Amino acid sequence: MHVLVVGGAGYIGSHMVKRLCQRGFEVTVLDNLSAGYRDAVTGGRFVLGDLGELEVLEDLFTTCRFDGVMHFASHIQVGESVREPAKYYRNNVFKTQHLLDAMVAHRVRCFIFSSTAAIFGEPVHVPMDEAHPKNPINPYGRGKWMVEQMLQDYEVAYDLKAVCLRYFNAAGADPEGELGERHQPETHLIPLVLRAATGRLPQVTVFGTDYDTPDGTCIRDYIHVSDLCEAHLLALQHLWDGGDSAAYNLGNGNGFSVREVIETAHTITGRDIPVRYGERRAGDPARLVADSRRARAELGWEPRYTDLATIIAHAWRWETGHGEGGR
Ligand code: UDP
Question: Where do the domains of the chain lie, and which CATH numbers do they carry?
Answer without folding.
Answer: 2-171+223-250 (3.40.50.720), 189-220+253-326 (3.90.25.10)
